Amino acid sequence: MGHIGIALMMILVFGVMLVHVQTIYAQAPNETSSQTTLSGDLLNSPLAQDILEKIEQTYQWIEDLENRDYEKTKAQKELEEKRAIALERLNQDLLEWENLWANYTSRAAFERFVEDKPSQIQGVFWDQFEFKEMKVNAGRTALKEVIANGGSLSEARAAYHKAAETKRIELIEMNAQFNVKHNLAYYKEQLLFNSTGQLTLNPYTVSTLGEFYKDYRTNPGYLLANPNDEHAYGSLGTNSDTDCRSGYVLVHRFTNNDYACITESTAERWERYGIGEVVDTEAVIYDEASVTPTVPTNPGTQCKDRHVVVYHFEAKAYGCVLESVANTWIEEDLAEIHELTQFILNKDKHKEIENQIYEINQEITAINDDNILEQIQLKKKYDLMYLDADKLESQEQKKLLKKFYSEDEMSKNELSSLIMKIRENNESNKEKILEDKAEALEDLKRDLHRKMQQMASEFEDNSEIKLVWNSSAEKYYAAKR
């Protein structure tokens, strides 16, 4: 048989197979298998038998593949179920572990410690705890960053210790801020202490402290600690109708149910400490910032989530801004991030500058006072000269009149003429005295101005202090650049 015959036969066989093939389906778990049979003459055809065998073999391959996929899917599902159960059990174990050791955590132990403290200072302790937690978290973050960037374990430890380190000056600074926050200290007073918590007595600090409490009997801390001091309370006593002098306000004291005239700044403190309240509500107007002790934003401030503290160059102040905003400002050289230690040391430097400014202004005040005294003395001198001129005129007129009445040689016309001449000379002399007085005063002013300019020239290259001319007061004063 030729190739054409064989091909025709194959076509015929497949055609017959397509007509006579019977497929029987049987269900298996999650699978479908099939069985193919032949009928008629095809049962005796070797070619048909071979094709049938290959078809059955193909079906078997498909079935095997389906079974393998089913087994794999089933195993994966069982594995995931086991993982979920294990995870649930692990979370339960962790929860039981946390409950078991809950009373032994650092926060729980600290809570028991704080409970024994007076209620008014508990907030300070909790702020100290949170500050410690912030340092620890900063260390952990630094450690993870080093590990994530491929750093060694020793490098990660070093990064942790550097970020989590808390210096003594930082503790002193933050304790001061926490005490102010919880109404246990006054911020302006805390500014007088240096980074080591010491108060250096110098002209500036002594003067500033004197402004806070001119009389110990008005100190809220003293009054609260000595409620039975009759001298402290009685010596300040007055009544509800008292009209206090300028700069003072009438306050009703709750502790003794009486009244006292005190300065406005002291009245503010009394209200803040709950000692009393101002009787005349229009006498002193407090805003929330003045009555409630606040610490300006600084590198120690705890900003809300995703915010950081930056120092803005133009505003010359710290502020909490979004991290994205902070990054933009830093890239544009508008702001920078300061470390807490840097901020504290800058405060020490600022205190030194303030003391220098105070001493310079004291020197300027002394020079101005000397100049004013010289002006007063100069005015007295020329005023006396002016009065002496009038006295001299009067004396000369008396002499002339005496001569007129004692001698017959002088006529009335001559007398009048001589008197007029004396008066004219006196007026001319007094004008000269006034001119000399004005010129002398101008010389004093020019001398003062020259001294101030000379002093100002000494600060031209000073990057911290400058001398400024106050045109309204007509005087110089030192200020921070």
Structural class: alpha+beta
How many β-strands, per DSSP?
11
Number of H- or I-type helical stretches: 15
Task: List the strand order in the largest sheet.
Answer: 3-5-4-6
Roughly how many Å apart are the termini?
116 Å
Domain module tally: 5
What does the radius of gyration come to? 50 Å
Mean pLDDT: 79
Helix content: 55-70%
Order of helices and strands: HEEHHHHHHHHHEEEHEHEEHEHHEE
In the predicted model, the low-confidence regions spanning at least 5 consecutive residues are: 1-34
Largest sheet: 4 strands, antiparallel
Word description of this protein:
The protein is an alpha+beta fold and 481 residues long. The chain folds into five domains: 3-96, no CATH class; 107-166, no CATH class; 213-296, no CATH class; 300-335, no CATH class; 342-480, no CATH class. Strand 1 and strand 2 (31-37) form a beta hairpin. The radius of gyration is 50 Å and the shape is elongated. Helices cover 63% and strands 12% of the residues.
Nutshell version of this structure?
The chain has 481 residues and is an alpha+beta fold. It has 15 helices and 11 strands.
Task: List the main descriptive attributes of the protein structure presented here.
single chain; 481 residues; alpha+beta; 5 domains; 4-stranded antiparallel β-sheet; 3-stranded antiparallel β-sheet; 15 helices; elongated; disordered N terminus
Helices and strands in order, then pairings?
Blueprint: H1 3-20, E1 22-28, E2 31-37, H2 46-101, H3 106-115, H4 119-148, H5 153-164, H6 168-181, H7 187-190, H8 203-212, H9 220-225, H10 230-234, E3 237-238, E4 248-253, E5 258-263, H11 264-273, E6 276-278, H12 288-291, E7 307-312, E8 317-322, H13 323-331, E9 335-336, H14 340-406, H15 412-457, E10 465-470, E11 475-480
Antiparallel strand pairs: 1-2, 3-5, 4-5, 4-6, 7-8, 7-9, 10-11
Helix pairs in contact: 3-4, 4-5, 4-6, 14-15
